[in-house]
Amino acid sequence: MVDWITTPGLTDYREAEAWMEARATAIAQGQAEECIWLVEHPPLYTAGTSAKPADLTDPDRFAVHQTRRGGQHTYHGPGQRVAYTLLDVGARGRDVRAFVQDLEAWVIATLATFNVTGEIREGRVGVWVQRPEKPRDAAGQIAEDKIAAIGIRLRKWISFHGLSINVEPDLSHFDGIVPCGIADHGVTSLVDLGLPVSMDDVDVALRKSFDGVFEPDLPDSGPAPVSNA
Q1: What are phi and psi of 94, to 5 degrees?
Q2: Cα 215 from chain centroid?
């Protein structure tokens, strides 16, 4: 069983981290079920383990939180659905790369609910959408914008942190960072793409598409070793 929890309003980021760490520990000890936690945060920037100081272009704009999730700088704020994925990767094959690919597939399946084609690009983390209505780049390629970010951490093979999908955030808030270290592409949202999608709509789509990507019934894998991947 996977618990689904939705917290209304805006959740403090440090409180969310503390809650995730406690829940991940409980899952590893067999004292709690796996969990998908859906939240929104007040405007803030986070810096993952690969974050470069130069990519924080406006450090005084919002609070900046150093975090031990993978990845670089990202933005969280109202209108963005953050899905924290506290799942037993040890029981799901102990393959971190495959797990991240499953997260990507989950986002893509969720976007497909709204007839949005999400795509993965080699060397660029997250999920992207083509913007043929925008000018092409210098190489003549169709413009692409990022619509979802992914960054996880593992402890004893339990994942936490997770993914975020831009539903209707203030896209100008991304201007204070180089999102995920990628300067030559923009960001978008479902509403920016012209879709009248609500947060509730996205939550329903996330839940419906989850079981199509992640196996609901897991075998007993026994104790998992410590991992800081």
Answers
A1: 55, 40
A2: 19
Find the catalytic residue in 28, 47, 180, 202: 180
Residue 200 φ then ψ, to 5°: -60, -40
- Integer Cα distance of 71 and 66 in angstroms: 11
Q: What is the pLDDT of residue 6?
A: 98
At a CB cut-off of 8 Å and minimum separation 6, what does 190 contact? 111, 114, 116, 147, 165, 166, 167, 168, 197, 202
pLDDT of amino acid 167: 98
Q: Give dist(CA 164, CA 175) in Å, integer.
A: 17
Mean pLDDT of 188-193: 98
Active site residue 35: no
Apex CA 33: angle with CA 31 and CA 39, to 5°?
120
**Percent residues over pLDDT 90 in the chain:** 80
Instruction: Decide: 118 and 148 in contact? Cβ < 8 Å.
Output: yes
CB 28 within 8 A of CB 61: no
